[in-house]
Automatic annotation (TrEMBL):
It comes from Ferrimonas balearica (strain DSM 9799 / CCM 4581 / KCTC 23876 / PAT). CDD domains: SPFH_HflK (cd03404). It is found in: Membrane. GO terms for cellular component: membrane. Residues 1-26, 331-371 are annotated as: Disordered. This is Protein HflK. The keyword Methyltransferase does not apply. GO terms for molecular function: peptidase activity. HflC and HflK could encode or regulate a protease. Residues 351-371 have a biased composition (Basic and acidic residues). HflC and HflK may interact to form a multimeric complex. Belongs to the band 7/mec-2 family. HflK subfamily. NCBIfam families: hflK (TIGR01933).
Length: 371
């Protein structure tokens, strides 16, 4: 039977008899009873309250210690308003007064923007681009905009669509990829600068650009043709760079040879002039002797360069000595010497007499000139 049912005359849980007083006991009365058992009321209650208060103070003091990592900066709020930025290290703050939010400013975050976009020449292309960024100002990152990462993603998509809409499809797929990347980067920085989100763009990567699957084979052929054209241009450029220095060197060599030939001819002419200038006094002293000597020296130079010697014997017939055949036979056979037909006295005598006569007449004229 429950303690509060009719007919129950026992005690209730709070010490009431007969069930007439069914309310809970007074807490003050309970504390007085406990303190009376320990030998005093007011003294014990004051000591207990002090211990409790001291414990709460210690818990509050120890709860204020916190640590900011090396790559982080802390944003401290005091009563909900920005107070200061906290540098890395072990710090302390008054709990329930200050609140600190750590923000990593060295980590590089990544966001991707992609989708089917319309180009300037009214073609559809699928483009995917990735932006890498980090936090430069923790305060602005937390409180300038509601969601800075989402705002950056939307700004990236807007900048990419703007650049793709002002670029032809051929440039997007081939040679204009780097320009699209740089233009997107510049456009994105211009957008986030007005938002003042405390973010800085580290890099923008052009990951993928491809046409729709229905026309992809045709675009692959066009890209292959453009790559072949670029390769041919590079090969032609390399060939021109190889041939042009050789041609320049050959032209320079020809110029140097021509200059050397000119100098040689000029020097030889000057030497001939000097030689004739030296012969003039001798010619004036003995003209006949000088003419004879010049004639003999000239004939000596002429005959020294030929392999055939013509001999006139004043008899109406002329013969020659085949010196080239003789020299060839001598060099071709080292063991067997070629036999030469000795000239007849009638053939050799006129040559010897003419030489003797010319020598004797030259000697006489030389003596006359000296006298």
């Amino acid at each position: 039977m429950a303690w509060n049912e009719p007919g129950n005359q026992g005690k209730d849980p709070w010490g009431n008899r007969g069930g007439k007083d069914q309310g809970p006991p007074d807490l003050d009365e309970v504390f007085r009873k406990i303190s009376s058992r320990f030998g005093g009321g007011n003294q014990f209650s004051g000591l207990g309250a002090g211990l409790v208060l001291l414990g709460l103070v210690l818990i509050w003091a120890f709860s204020g210690f916190y640590k900011i990592e090396e790559a982080e900066r802390g944003v401290k709020l005091r009563f909900g308003q920005f107070h200061e930025l906290v540098e890395p290290g072990l710090k302390w703050k008054p709990t329930f007064v200050d609140t600190v939010y750590p923000v990593n400013i060295q980590r590089v975050n990544r966001l991707t923007a992609s989708g089917m976009m319309l180009t300037q020449d009214e073609n559809v292309v699928r483009v995917e681009m990735e932006v890498q960024y980090r936090i430069s100002d923790p305060r602005k990152y937390l409180y300038s905009v509601t969601s800075p990462d989402q705002s950056l993603s939307e700004a990236m998509d807007s900048a990419l669509r703007y650049v793709i809409g002002h670029t032809t499809m051929d440039n997007i797929l081939t040679v204009g990829r780097d320009k699209v990347r740089r233009d997107t980067w510049d456009e994105l920085e211009g957008i986030i600068e007005s938002y003042d989100m405390g973010l800085v763009v580290v890099d923008v990567a052009f990951k993928e650009a491809r046409p729709p699957e229905e026309v992809k084979p045709a675009f692959d052929d066009a890209i292959a043709a453009q790559e072949d054209e670029e390769r041919y241009v590079q090969e032609a450029t390399a060939y021109s760079r190889q041939v042009e220095p050789q041609a320049r060197g050959q032209a320079e060599r020809m110029l140097q040879e021509a200059d050397a030939y000119k100098r040689r001819v000029v020097l030889e002419a000057e030497g001939e002039v000097a030689r004739f200038a030296q012969l003039l006094p001798q010619y004036e002293a003995a003209p006949d002797v000088t003419r004879e000597r010049l004639y003999l020296e000239t004939m000596e130079q002429v005959f020294s360069k030929t392999t055939k010697v013509m001999v006139d014997n004043d008899g109406g017939s002329m013969f020659y000595l085949p010196l080239d055949k003789i020299i060839q036979n001598q060099s071709g056979s080292a063991v067997q010497q070629p036999k030469m037909a000795e000239p007849t006295p009638s053939q050799t005598r006129p040559v010897r007499n003419d030489f003797d006569e010319s020598r004797s007449s030259r000697t006489d004229r030389t003596r006359q000139g000296r006298n």
